[in-house]
Write a structure and sequence with these properties.
Two copies of one chain form a homodimer. Chain A is α+β, with helices and mostly antiparallel strands. Chain A folds into two domains: 138 residues, Jelly Rolls; 106 residues, Winged helix-like DNA-binding domain superfamily/Winged helix DNA-binding domain (Arc Repressor Mutant, subunit A). In chain A, strands 2-6-4-5 form a four-stranded antiparallel sheet. In chain A, strands 1-7-3 form a three-stranded antiparallel sheet. In chain A, helix 6 crosses helix 9. Chain A is globular and about 55 Å long. Chain A starts with 13 loop residues before the first helix and ends in an 8-residue tail after the last helix. Chains A and B meet through helix 4, helix 5 and helix 10 of A and helix 4, helix 5 and helix 10 of B. The structure holds a DNA duplex.
Chain lengths: 261, 261
DNA sequence: CGCATCATTGAAGCCCTTCAAGACTTGTGG
DNA sequence: CCACAAGTCTTGAAGGGCTTCAATGATGCG
């Protein structure tokens, strides 16, 4: 309850709550009391760091609004973007349980955040094991996304890589109710996320425009034709589909809906 | 208790128990009763599949002895090896909570496995939230390793990639008490894990031998000089160091041992 | 209006891939 | 025990995808 004094706006926390429920948390007392612990965190404008990880912290950060990404500066001077965060996501759940290595979360659009003290999280997962399971699943979902990114970066050509990343963004955006076709990533950021040079990303974007997947708008990437993009990327969104992923639990409560291929 | 009939040898489960304790589980009743639920699973010889994921299963698999890896066949015909598993690791923890996409775990050495029914896992994490937290951390550790691999594959040259992978294996092997310098990976497997062609991996191995990092033994890779390998790879093992990762919890119980850089 | 960031273009070259073929190792069956 | 097959390791040569360097337009902000 320590967050109450400057508590975050309860309405703003709705996406956060919804995500946890999607992940299997029960919409009861345990979740409500966790939500009450969310304190108003700092706001960050595009380009500024939200969290600097690997520094001992006393709280975890929830992205209340906006888009952000996790990056790391490599020894060879490159920047590697490894995860993206959308409204309702935890930005630094991994450092709740383990302190990782030097990395940071930067805002891709203007962002507002909430803070949850580790102590409050401790209590919450101790009292409500379904909530704990939901948080665990949030970690798994993140891992699944990185897994996919690994396959994407390792053995595919630049065109497919960029297209795949854009598809992932589109999908995750619509999952949190953003239907705009504008993706808030510059070519520099695309390059850092796809492990390509900016020059080459530029040529790839031109190719995607040529194929009608991106619009001819300069400055920020606007998707013109989703299906064409999905086709170029060979994108299969299943790995992002939370509700389908919880099959085992859903089967218990709803035995008729098991899907067979 | 369902596993009791053909229960796995309790002694063989020690690495598994030790790993969970390292991850913060309490060595009490909760852990003991989980161990009793482990049934003897199938054994697999080098090259055969241990688990085929994305198929609905009723149990999770623990690697009791041996080395295995998670792979996926990509549409372009390549095989991507994404994770490695050693004695005491779960092979398919992710499919306990979420069903992912088509992938499989293959034995790199002869392996023996144990099975835990999902229902038993459900009970265990419901009753012992420290155990649940430990399992969560196991997922986080796996995610941290994939994160590192992502950075390794994305922006580094073949020499560093291969060296880094070998360093990771060495480190994880010694963590489970294997001190041999022989790494059970063929050049084909190295290639699939590093996202390189076999031909190129071969030349890289020669370069590593030339630099004195690998021995001139043909057939299977034998590390000659660990320090040189670490130097080539710019390897920093911190991300694998479980005990250091649990800093926050260790601080609570052991406040004197905080390390400062 | 100047400065910073982003987008674009061309040219040179390196890293790695693919193809192709040969040597060595291991296991299997006649 | 040897022949053969399958898998692994090795080597050379040709070529492609991507990077780096360098320079020029666009766009937006104080």
């Amino acid at each position: 309850m320590r967050g109450l004094k400057n508590a975050a706006d309860p309405g703003a926390l709705e996406p956060f709550a919804r995500k946890l429920i999607k992940l299997g948390a029960e919409p009861g007392k345990g979740l409500r009391s966790l939500l009450q612990c969310v304190a108003r965190g700092k706001c960050a404008s595009r380009g500024s760091d939200i969290v600097r990880l690997a520094r001992r912290s006393a709280h975890s950060t929830v992205l209340i609004d906006g888009v952000a990404c996790l990056y790391r500066l490599l020894d060879n001077g490159h920047r590697q973007i490894s995860s993206f965060y959308y409204t309702g996501d935890f930005c630094d759940l991994q450092s709740y349980a383990m302190s990782g290595r030097e990395q940071a979360v930067v805002a891709l659009t203007d962002c507002s955040t909430g803070r949850i003290l580790y102590g409050d999280l401790d209590l919450a997962i101790e009292r409500d094991h379904k909530l704990a399971l939901a948080l665990w699943r949030a970690t798994m979902l993140e891992a699944a996304i990185i897994h996919e990114r690994l396959a994407n970066l390792s053995r595919r050509h630049a065109l497919e890589r960029v297209a795949h990343l854009l598809c992932e963004q589109l999908h995750r955006r619509s999952a949190v109710g953003i239907d705009s076709n504008l993706i808030p990533l510059t070519q520099v950021e695309l390059a850092d996320a796809c492990a390509l040079s900016v020059v080459h990303v530029n040529r790839i974007c031109q190719e995607l425009r040529h194929r009608g997947a991106l619009s001819r708008n300069r400055h920020l990437n606007q998707v013109e034709n989703r299906d064409r993009l999905i086709e170029v990327a060979s994108f299969d969104a299943r790995y992002l589909d939370i509700s389908a992923e919880l099959s085992r639990w859903r089967v218990e409560t709803d035995p008729g809906r098991e899907h067979r291929p």
